[in-house]
Amino acid sequence: MVVEVVERVLQDKARDPGKIEALIFDTLYEERRRLETERDRKKAAAEGKFYRKMQARALRGGPEEQREVLAEIVRHFAEEVLGHFSEPMYRIATQIVPVGLNLLLNTLSPLRLISHFPKGLGKVDDQILIEGHTEEFQRLSKQGTMILVPTHCSNLDSPLIGYVLYRLGLPPFLYGAGLNLFHNKLIGFFMDHLGAYKVDRRKKAPLYKDVLKVYAGYSMELGYHNLFFPGGTRSRSGKVESRLKLGLLGMGLNAYIHNLRHDKPNPDIFVVPCTLNYQLVLEAETLIEDYLKEEGKARYIIEDDEFAQVKRILEFLQGLFSLESRIHVVFSRPLDVFGNPVDAEGRSLDHRGREIDRRKYVVQDGEYRFDPQRDQEYTLELAKSILESYRRDTVIGSVQTVAHVVWRWLREVNPKMDLYRLLRSGGAQDSLTMTEVYRRLQGTIQALRDLQKRGGLRLDPELEVSDPAEVFGKALAHLKSYHKHPVLERKGDRLFHYDRQLLLYYQNRLSFAEPNL
Amino acid sequence: MTARNVKKKTAATPSGLEALVVGGGSFGTALATLLARNHRKVRLWVRREEQAQEINRRHTNKAYFPELKLPSNLEATTDLASSIAGVPFVLIAVPSKGFREVARQVGDYITGDQVLVHSTKGIEPGTFKRMSEVLREETCALKIGVISGPSLSEELMAGNPAGATVASHYEEVVRKAQALFAGGPFRLYAGSDVIGTEIGGAFKNIIALMSGAAHGLGFGDNTKALIVTRGLYEMTLYGAALGADPVTFTGLAGIGDLMATCSSNLSRNFRTGVRFARGEKLEDILQSPGQVVEGVSATRSVHAQSQLLGLDLPMVRAVHGAFFEGQKVQDLLHRLMERTPGRENGRAKGSF
């Protein structure tokens, strides 16, 4: 696999000999910068030596030698990315999933650990609800290659997905996991066995990203199901993704065209959007802090958040499960690589439900062809469909609803106040009456139910049946179960707001539906 | 299916057809004529069998061009299914009112490798959707584009030099459209701002109604220039709010089309404005044969949508007031002139 990946990257990057030298030195520059902050000094020394050697060869060599140097650097990256992936191991893992993974889950999964906690805790299987188009997902996974693209708000997302795939009886999906996930040994072990390969997000060199992309695309051609978070990183604001990274997403189309050109018997690639919905988010405090601090320039890598502390994970899960708070994992309708919906038989359909011959999209002058500009637009179409699915299949619970109601009230009573001042000071009024809370909740819940009827989003069952007082009570209980400092507190007939950052974070989940509320 | 099989199936249509124009109205006939004169193998789909026979046997389309002869190599048909199969370029030129229905029929036969372009300058009544959005909903086509610009059918038929914009997110669409018309009197300039190009085409008709009304009231070129220029400003505000690139409106699909439409008697929208201002009833004007006045329905749509968007478009409001609220055109023009003039390029109220 490494050989093929290197070959493909070179085919693309070494096409113009005049650009090879610049590519090498740009990559060396980025890597040297990264090594300056590498904590593992031994590793940094070894890598530094490698890059110095490459530099010397590139400086003295002619075009042929420089091509060789480029190949070596690409190989270096490819081996690191693929280092933890063994094809035979993967095949074995996919065949013994029921036994092997079960064992793993019973011994190592934090979710399982929680299920062993004494008394009053629900079972994991009952707490994690798998909903949506699961049957199509299962059926299509036998017919073509699947790309699972979930929303992303927590580092718990990957083990959760791993667990859900296991429950659905599906093989592990290849997954490019950030190095920081492996720092947590418990999760790292878990990830390693779920088809995860390591992605070093500190590597900024475009060449490294090309290697990752080519590897993902090639693995799809070979029929490996892939999983990646197209939002790129955890949502810092708490909002449902509204923009996607197109590079990796486009590799599905790339693989599809390759498959057609090579007359593969199962050329199809199917994309399955999926929403992961928690009442509370483990890293909520750090994420919103980061979002506000950086004003949109959020740190790409956070290594010191709640996820790095096993104790916090356990507290989080304990709180979650003791309240029977359900995690909804919703599989949206599968899509083809052009963004059209696909039925259970794998047929692409147009808006009127007519079947589409999807192969025609890549036919030019009678041949299956790549066309970078066209293919980029196709990928944008796919991204648009994924984002629509995200909105439609986002599950809103009591926490998001109550947070929205209180946050909206805060904005209304402080119309001219700057966001940061409002967050810090809380504005002119520190509380509102419970009558007002219930009145507003009533309206919002009704609007949410109407929106659900129109297919605009999904609601947790607690919002479908409960009255405002019950919804309010549940939301407060959830918030208290995990967050150390009170977010909201009821004192007599008034509701006081304290942690407005968390209010903003949780209400943001609903921001896409704001015009309808 | 192998790559070879694909080639067998799609390399060419049975007839070697290069383009299909859907819609035998004045603009559809003019575009098909230009392609035929350009020695392209083109077919014109019309709804009525008699019209198809007239074009094929007598080479005329008297309902729209009573005096003109059509090229003998222009073939008309009522059979959409066989005409659309495998043709690389499909151009829809039907009024916005019936656009969705035609698009749905096209959607029954079109495949993903075909390019689908429209030249309809309107907004779908009720939904406020642009025609490319309707095409996306009613067909499986992704390679969609729009042709818009100053293109009065009679002048095109006369072979006068003209130009328009062809806009698409797909370069292949633009390339194909340009290649088909290349060498003839109708030049297509490439663009990628589909929203702006479509909005320009629809919005200018509203301004043409106003300009025609001013002409009908006996006002001169200064007034028309004022209307056109301030209309362009409103077009830009509205387009930008919907995601268009304001620069698009400085091109053929914006100011270019305004210049042609807002002073020409060949423009149906301009003529409608003139007749309306001179006292004819709108219903009577719209019942005149061959009259599809896109500006009237566009006024309703843009007026309603601008309110939803919170946009202040005084001229659109005035046209709406005149055509749908029974207000006198003279009064509306006076009221516009009484507004406090704001900065010419400002966004403040009183933009007229």
Structure description:
The complex is a heterodimer of chains A (517) and B (352). Chain A is of the alpha/beta class. Helices cover 54% and strands 11% of the residues of chain A. Chain A has helices spanning 2-13, 17-36, 41-60, 63-82, 87-95, 97-107, 110-115, 124-127, 134-140, 157-167, 179-183, 185-192, 206-221, 246-249, 251-261, 284-294, 310-322, 372-392, 398-413, 419-425, 434-453, 461-465, 468-482, 500-507; strands spanning 128-132, 145-150, 174-178, 196-199, 226-227, 269-277, 327-331, 348-349, 355-356, 363-364, 367-368, 395-396, 431-433, 458-459, 488-491, 494-497. The radius of gyration of chain A is 25 Å and the shape is globular. The termini of chain A are far apart. The model of chain A is unreliable at 96-122 and 296-300 (pLDDT under 50). Chain B folds into 2 domains: 3-192, NAD(P)-binding Rossmann-like Domain (Rossmann fold, 3-Layer(aba) Sandwich); 196-338, N-(1-d-carboxylethyl)-l-norvaline Dehydrogenase, domain 2, CATH 1.10.1040. An 8-stranded mixed sheet of chain B has the order 3-2-1-4-5-6-7-8, sandwiched between helices. In chain B, strand 5 (115-118), helix 6 (131-138) and strand 6 (144-148) form a beta-alpha-beta unit. The longest helix of chain B has 23 residues, at 194-216. Chain B is globular, with a radius of gyration of 20 Å. The model of chain B is unreliable at 1-12 (pLDDT under 50). Chain A binds chain B through residues 260-261, 263, 338, 340, 348, 350-352, 354, 356-361, 363-368, 371, 373-374, 377-378, 380-381, and chain B through 1-3, 6-11, 104, 107-108, 111-114, 136-140, 142-143, 169-172.
